[in-house]
Amino acid sequence: MKFIGQLLGQHLQRYPLMQLEDIYKLLHQAALGAGHAVSNRDAALAALESECRSLVAAPEEPLVDRISPDGRLARVYLRPYIAREHAIGALADAFVRTPQVCPAAPDKLARFCACLGDLAEAGGIAFTRAQVSTWFDDIAAQGYPAVHHSQAFRDAYRPAYRVVAVELLPGVG
Q1: Which residue in 170, 149, 160 sits closest to 59, CA to CA?
Q2: Which of 12, 23, 50, 139 has the most other CB atoms within 10 Å of its CB?
Q3: pLDDT in tens, 39-56
């Protein structure tokens, strides 16, 4: 799948320490958004404000990183979002509303994951087909749950973002 190869190529260039769980997390978000993390607006805002208060320096990040094939879903990175003085409440609102305007598509996630073996074999990712098959067969057997970034990814890049429908943040995307 051309889109997956391009998406992963861009991310691996920026994040060369990505592990299989980081690749999966990206694909999970591209297909399902972040609805699993949304309970309500007040909780989303409180968690976002808390995370913003605890941010530490990290490698340079874009403001918006589109991750879905249609370009509607994106990771909005907190450090540049705050630096540009965008409203935290607007981001919380967009985060909570995203599952309504971009519903989860579990069938897409299965298709995205299914192409990774071919991508590994072609050298598009630094894992073997066997590694990819083993890891993704296991995650499929678990019902494609949400996962955290790998420790290597967290240590190196200190990810801080929200997955939102960019159409819900005018002037950002």
Answers
A1: 160
A2: 23
A3: 689 999 999 999 999 999
